[in-house]
Amino acid sequence: MEEKIKSLRIAADIHKKVRKMVKDDIKPGAKILDICEKIETNVRLLSKYDAEKPLLQGIGFPCGFSVNNCAAHWTPVTSNEKRKIKKGDVCKIDFGVHVNGYIIDSAWTVAFDEKYNNLLNATKDATNTGLKLAGCDARISEISANIEEVINSYDIVLNNKRLKIKPVRSLCGHQIEKYKIHHKKAIPIIRMDNYHEKMKEGEFYAIETFASTGTGNVIERGNCSHYMVDYRNEKKKNFQNMNSDEKLLLTTLYKKRSTLPFCPRWLKSYGINNYSDNLNNLVKRNIINTYPPLYDVKGSYISQFEHTILIYNDKTEVLSRSDDY
After folding, report:
1. How many CA atoms lie within 13 A of 245 on its CB side?
2. What is the spatial distance between Cα 57 and Cα 11, in angstroms, rounded to a whole number?
3. Domain 227-289 classified CATH 1.10.10.10?
4. Crossing angle of helices 117-133 and 140-152, rounded to 10°
5. Looking at residue 238, what is its pLDDT?
6. Which helix (H) or strand (E) holds 140?
7. So where are the chain's domains?
8. Please, which residues have CB within 8 angstroms of residue 147's CB and are 6 or more apart in sequence?
9. 0.90 exceeded by the pTM?
10. Check: CATH 3.40.50.720 for 2-223+294-318?
11. Per-residue pLDDT tens for 140-197?
12. What is the C-alpha separation between 308 and 12, in angstroms, rounded?
């Protein structure tokens, strides 16, 4: 427990420092690639990332920068991405820091027009509600029901129409474990009375909520930018019937990321070129999992706020909380 607490607090401190470093960069006209790379570069610097010991500390997962009706899992796939922020955008910035495999997962939303205030407030309020209710032996179903109630209490006026704000039904908060961004327990953001899990001492969670002006249902679309070695596959079994390039890719990913998520944009720095066919083959064999961008209907907008918490016997520590959110 002592290593866990110390590692999480160090990672949380880095997360707070990095997001303050980029706060003023997130503005209309800025290149999204530049922001993501600045975040990732400074996570490496502040965590003292060592390429010779890549699993000790560093980036928890690719920096997500999901805009408007994209809820999650968008980051530039290549270093040629030209997309810029627009004045009417609703931007969700979601990045992770790990120390000794213990991951801080925290996200916030930026909008440049006050008309989106209620949308942002819906997830701020809902996430804070989840944080207040979290604790040792807390029933997750009760947390979920309260989160949904808060989000459903908000509405918004866009284009002279009053719209109900809805939770994004398929997205959840989640338990985190060492080198595993999604562990066994989920924290749904809709009422699920038949979910009987409780939080326990020593567990840590990402409490995150998503609110949408659209349907509240998201689908996978577009080029995948988030990948992860499947937790369930044992290394010794993975190398059967592979060609040399596939073995090199998988060996490199194990060495550099273990079961932490990665994106193709990083592979060149690992010495891997022309990866596409080999990566796709590993995906087809279920050795590597894909996490494509998730979208609600066109013209809708989604907000997100997220914090990582640690459960003690008598209290809950909101590790990623700072004066910004």
Report:
1. 10
2. 8
3. yes
4. 160
5. 60
6. helix 140-152
7. 2-223+294-318, 227-289
8. 126, 127, 129, 130, 167, 189, 190, 209
9. yes
10. no
11. 999 999 999 999 999 999 999 999 999 999 999 999 999 999 999 999 999 999 999 9
12. 9
